[in-house]
Automatic annotation (TrEMBL):
Keyword Transport annotated: no
InterPro entries: 2-oxogl_dehyd_N, 2oxoglutarate_DH_E1, DH_E1, KGD_C_sf, ODO-1/KGD_C, THDP-binding, Transketolase-like_Pyr-bd
GO CC list: cytosol; oxoglutarate dehydrogenase complex
Domain called Transketolase-like pyrimidine-binding: residue spans: 602-799
PANTHER family referenced in this protein's UniProt entry, alphabetically: 2-OXOADIPATE DEHYDROGENASE COMPLEX COMPONENT E1, 2-OXOGLUTARATE DEHYDROGENASE
EC numbers for this chain: 1.2.4.2
This protein's name: 2-oxoglutarate dehydrogenase E1 component
Length: 958
């Protein structure tokens, strides 16, 4: 068939060409006849194609052959409009041919609504008239009429209507229900049509393959039943009712390996996790039993429950060894998903694998959580963006049809399917009946093929059931009595499939023999998959041992030689003549060039940029992301220079930090999507897979970290003590009280202080350009990988008092405490009566007040590292003033926020006998800051004055 005829027939299948839209098409056609160039390209191609399609009545080929459009012409003719040629009686056959195309389109679009997906047979088939032949005017007399289906339905060029209907039903209404027609990519739609319609969605597996599927079902069921009888009542989040999931995982791993994938990173919540550990990743059953028996070694400060544990192994596939990693996951269900994506991206970058050919992300979801947890939408939104794409994710849903604890569909979600959220990225979905394990394996196979072909997300939705309650201590019949009556009568997927194979002549005892063999393996505590490679070591594996067990007190060698500083500064501040920067940006870079030469002090932006430049020049990659990180929210960074004469992103930008040295490490800066939770989770996952890259997430305003609190609480703060997972992620959180209201003042410092324990993270609030330079370099050059939380400033970005001389970059290191900087006061240290301790911007307000009032008996100490608290450095700074009777902690934040409640006992520990500790700051408040400028100024003035006034209120005496 010719290409022009194909174009014509493709348009025939679109329902928007018919009915009420026919006058629009007729008008478009009139415009085409007058001037072909006046209509869009797609319509011009369509009308061009009509030139080569015979009219249904043998009249002029330029007449529109679609009956609805002909009728529209005729109606206009009656009203005195365009003169038209009306089709003869042969138009009826044309109408039927058109109806066939509509029928095929209907099955492709909504056929899955009639699919046989429910193992419990509880789902009623909805009324969908478009799937009935009668909807299109077909009768029994048309059943044997032969229609041309070439290039419209794969399989045969001609079929009688009866055969076509059977083919459509088998393909789209069997145990696989496919959704893909919403994609705008025609190649993808044709791919699915060819794959599904060519085989009628029916797998063709040989006897060995079927035996292997039964083996995997036996392993899945066998482990659950073994645990159920041996560890009665213990939580394990059983997979019973969803055993086909293990067959799906097996297919995914083996087929991925055969296609060249070398690493698979898996994220999943609780259900079936223990089963995956043993039956997919090859964890020794005896090691799992030890965790149930409470005899496993306890090596971590806190630890976690067994169904949160991660694991890694190497398994053999037809394509070679594949490294499997199951991510550690807290109880917050889907929160692991962006973490997995970040880990995958780090592995891709390490392998120089930009398309994800060697690394595959696999995310396993529960039905209710997938549609209910907002982090999924955020993670999906990252899927095709440049800084976060992982080449497509295979999603598998263990769909229990119960919505966590409710079985009423009205309370589960607002969409038809739990998978409907993936339509936002046009990811195809294969719904599949869990009681048809061969269909599950086929769906998994097709999903992987699609991902590898198109590098996009794809979903396998395994509709199954949950034999037990949400956990093994629940009684689900309390709330779902009818559902659980059905479940009680269900023989189990393994039994159904074993009986099916026996009926096919594959052995009456095959199923029972496998059950006995698996039980014997369980009793012996042996591997249940073969082979697990115990001695394989990939060249891409990361050795974390150099970073473990190190002390935070090591400052690291963070200064750089003067010659290196000047060399890097010149490279950093040189903009090619071919790039035309904005005049404001040009001034910034001219000023930085002077800073690089030592002519003026270095400001915050230059200090930060030079830290990045020195790191990438030394071989440490830098990855910085956030909602405006290229420019910087407060326009201080300008890491990306936009050519004012070009707008194309690929040629219209210049990144100086990518051009500071030959063979330098990568510098990547990403303006992220408007997401905190998923992006921060992604960066945590990236940092957790690459200790040699400085990974930074920057909040546009510090309080935006609120949107990512789950990641902070359950990963960043506690990941090491729960799971032993070191991580060097850096958070930059703009923090400063400049009268910008409640949401633009505080980065919620108090929350990080509350989470600080077990030396789990570093919390700093640097106040000079040299301090940000040294703390960023320290994060990489010393052999310690702990999360670093930086309270970065806003007003200090341009405050000349916060600049630093060049000498502070070529010597020294990050100062956890900055003692009094006024030599006149230090020379008379014995005269000092009060010491004010503070952190952050308020220091400059205090110095200004002291200068204005000519105060000479008050010293000011800056605590730059709030946690781990630098006792030695703070004590040394305080001891310089033995006659000081008052110690005051001054902060911008309200009393119940900021560092006060955490810092007071640390200060008290280092005070001398007889000294008193007081507080000066805003009063306790339910809001981080006021929204009225005048009130802010009044409060700021009062807290600064209070730092010098007589102690009042709460006073702590040593």
């Amino acid at each position: 068939m010719s290409d022009t005829t194909s174009v014509y027939q493709a348009y025939q299948g679109n329902t928007y060409l018919f009915g009420g839209n026919a006058p629009y098409v007729e008008e478009m056609y009139e415009n085409y006849l007058a001037n072909p160039g006046s209509v869009p390209d797609t319509w011009r191609e369509y009308f061009d194609a009509l030139q080569h399609v015979p009219a249904v009545d043998g009249s002029n080929a330029r007449d529109v052959p679609h009956l609805p459009v002909i009728n529209a012409f005729a109606e206009r003719a009656k009203q005195g409009g365009t003169k038209v040629v009306v089709a003869s009686a042969d138009a009826e056959m044309g109408r039927k041919r058109t109806a066939v195309q509509q029928l095929i389109a209907a099955y492709r679009n909504v056929g899955q609504r009639w699919a046989d997906l429910d193992p419990l047979k509880r789902t009623e088939r909805p009324a969908i008239p478009e799937l009935e032949p009668s909807f299109y005017g077909f009768t029994d007399a048309d059943q044997e009429t032969v229609f041309d289906t070439s290039n419209t339905f794969f399989g045969k060029d001609k079929m009688p209507l009866r055969e076509l209907l059977n083919a459509l039903h088998e393909t789209y209404c069997g145990t696989i229900g496919a959704e893909y027609m919403y994609t705008t990519d025609q190649a993808q739609k044709r791919w699915w049509q060819q794959k599904l319609e060519g085989i009628r969605s029916k797998p063709q597996f040989n006897a060995d393959r079927k035996r292997h599927i039964l083996d995997r079902l036996t392993a899945a069921e066998g482990l659950e039943r073994f645990l159920h009888t041996k560890y009665v009542g213990q939580k394990r989040f059983s997979l019973e009712g969803g055993e086909s999931f293990i067959a799906s995982m097996d297919e995914l791993i083996q087929s991925a390996g055969a296609k060249g994938v070398q690493e698979i990173v898996i994220g999943m919540a609780h259900r079936g996790r223990l089963n995956v550990l043993v039956n997919s990743l090859g964890k020794m059953p005896k090691d799992l039993f030890a965790e149930f028996d409470h005899t496993a070694p306890e090596e971590l400060p806190a630890g976690d429950v067994k169904y949160h544990q991660g694991f890694s192994s190497d398994v053999s596939t037809a394509g070679g060894p594949v490294h499997l990693s199951l991510a550690f996951n807290p109880s917050h269900l889907e929160i692991v998903n962006p973490v997995v994506e970040g880990s995958v991206r780090a592995r891709m970058d390490r392998r120089d694998d930009p398309k994800g050919s060697q690394v595959l992300p696999v995310l396993v979801h529960g039905d209710s959580a997938f549609g209910g947890q907002g982090v999924n939408q955020e993670t999906l939104a990252l899927a095709q963006t440049r800084g976060y794409t992982t080449g497509g994710t295979v999603h598998i849903i263990i769909n229990n049809q119960i919505g966590f604890t409710t079985s009423d569909p009205r309370d589960m979600r607002s969409t038809v399917y739990c998978t409907d959220i993936v339509k936002m990225v046009e990811a195809p979905v294969l719904h599949v009946n869990g009681d048809d394990p061969e269909a599950v394996v086929l769906a998994t196979q097709l999903a992987l093929e699609f991902r590898m072909e198109f590098r996009q997300d794809v979903v396998v939705d395994i509709t199954c059931f949950r034999k037990l309650g949400h956990n093994e201590q629940d009684t689900p019949a309390l709330t779902q009595p009818l559902m659980y009556k059905k479940i009680a009568q269900h023989p189990g997927t393994r039994k159904l499939y074993a009986d099916k194979l026996a009926a096919q002549g594959m052995g009456a005892t095959l199923g029972d023999d496998m059950v006995k063999a698996y039980r014997a393996a369980m009793d012996a505590g042996k591997h249940t998959i073969d082979p697990v490679l115990t001695n394989f070591k990939s060249k891409y594996a990361v050795d974390w041992s150099p970073f473990l067990g190190k002390k935070w007190t090591d400052a690291g060698d963070t200064a750089i030689p003067l010659t290196e500083w000047k060399r890097l500064a010149e490279k950093l501040t040189t903009i090619p003549d071919s790039v035309a920067p904005h005049q404001l940006v040009k001034k910034v870079y001219d000023d930085r060039a002077a800073m690089g030469r030592g002519e003026v002090n270095v400001d915050w932006g230059m200090g930060e940029s030079m830290a990045f430049a020195s790191l990438v020049a030394s071989g440490y990659p830098v990855r910085l992301s956030g909602e405006d990180s290229g420019r910087g929210t407060f326009t201080h960074r300008h890491a990306v220079i936009h050519d004012q004469n070009r707008e194309k992103w690929d040629t219209g930008t210049y990144v100086p930090l990518q051009n500071v040295a030959e063979n330098q490490a990568p510098f990547v800066v990403i303006d992220s999507i408007l997401s905190e939770e998923a992006v921060l989770g992604f960066e945590y996952g990236y940092a957790g897979s690459d200790p040699n890259t400085l990974v930074i997430w920057e909040a546009q305003f510090g309080d935006f970290a609120n949107g990512a609190q789950v990641v902070i609480d359950q990963f960043i703060a506690s990941g090491e003590v729960k799971w032993g997972r070191a991580n060097g992620l850096t958070l930059m959180l703009p923090h400063g009280y400049e009268g910008q209201g409640p949401e633009h003042s505080s980065a919620r410092l108090e929350r990080f202080m509350q989470l600080a324990a077990d030396a789990n993270m570093q919390i700093v609030q640097p106040t000079t350009a040299s301090q940000i330079f040294h703390v960023l370099r320290r994060q990489m050059v010393r052999d310690l990988r702990k999360p670093l939380v930086i309270m970065t400033p806003k007003s200090l970005l341009r405050n000349k008092d916060a600049t630093s001389p060049l000498s502070e970059f070529t010597k020294g290191s990050f100062q956890t405490v900055i003692p009094e900087q006024n030599d006149a006061i230090d020379k008379k240290a014995d005269k000092v009566k009060r010491v004010i301790a503070c952190s952050g911007k308020v220091y400059y307000d205090l110095v200004k007040k002291r200068t204005e009032n000519e105060v000479t008996d008050v010293a000011i100490i800056r605590v730059e590292q709030l946690y781990p608290f630098p006792h030695k450095a703070f004590a040394a700074a305080l001891k310089k003033y033995p006659n000081a009777t008052d110690i005051v902690w001054c902060q911008d934040e309200p009393q119940n926020q900021g560092a006060w409640f955490f810092i007071q006992h640390n200060i008290h520990e280092n005070m001398l006998d007889g000294q008193k500790l007081g507080y000066s700051g805003r009063a306790a408040s339910a809001s981080p800051a006021v929204g009225y400028s005048h009130l802010h100024q009044e409060q700021q003035k009062a807290l600064v004055e209070g730092a010098f006034a007589k102690l009042k209120g709460f006073v702590l005496t040593k």
